Amino acid sequence: MDISIYDFVYYLTFIAMIIALVSTWKYECSRYFLLFLFGLEAIDDAILPITLTWTTHFYLYCIVFDLIFCIPIIYRKHIAYWIYQKTHWDFFRRVYNNHHLALQEIGLLMLFGVDIAINFIVYIEVWLYKWKFLDQLFIKNNIRLNVVLFINFFTLCALVTYAAKARAREEFYRTNKAPESSTI
Questions:
Q1: Cα 72 from Cα 35, distance rounded (Å)
Q2: Which of 18, 122, 140, 144 stands 20 to 30 A from 173 (CA)?
Q3: Residue 168: CB atoms within 10 Å
Q4: Please, which residues have CB within 8 angstroms of residue 41's CB and are 6 or more apart in sequence?
Q5: pLDDT 10s digit of each residue in the chain, 184 long?
Q6: R_g over Cα of the chain
Q7: Would you tell me how many other CB atoms lie within 10 Å of the CB of residue 105?
Q8: By C-alpha distance, which of 128, 4, 117, 133 is closest to 59?
């Protein structure tokens, strides 16, 4: 079985997400965030074989899915509040009241931004190639795979760091509670 370094790091990130989820299970905010990411990653992996056949629009798919991956980071607190209003499950109220943005989440947003940028550039490059404005796909063939490899590697690092710091982060925010006006 021959596996490339690109595939190895990609699937290692998925495995790290599972390990991070298991190791942070007792911390509700971390569990909620990682379950959200894990669900999106599972959907992405499920439809990846289909999207790989979209030769031109695959890069547009990557852009859209990167934007979707930003949702659990940017809107997680609002989504928890909305779910709490609909279901009255106390878990979502606690997540809403105790949510705090972690440094690793900001790092993930930056990584998604880099991925969006490289995929946008490649998407434009592919169209220019199809319209015969370019003779070769230099960025797609020589740069994109390495950039994606580093993005996946740093995503792996962010997930491991997020999981490793979950306990300290939860304890810090538990002892330094926000004013009651921001809770429901």
A1: 10
A2: 18
A3: 9
A4: 14, 17
A5: 677 888 888 888 889 999 999 999 999 999 999 999 999 999 999 999 999 999 899 999 999 999 999 999 999 999 999 999 999 999 999 999 998 999 999 999 999 999 999 999 999 999 999 999 999 999 999 999 999 999 999 999 999 999 999 999 988 888 887 555 456 6
A6: 19
A7: 19
A8: 117
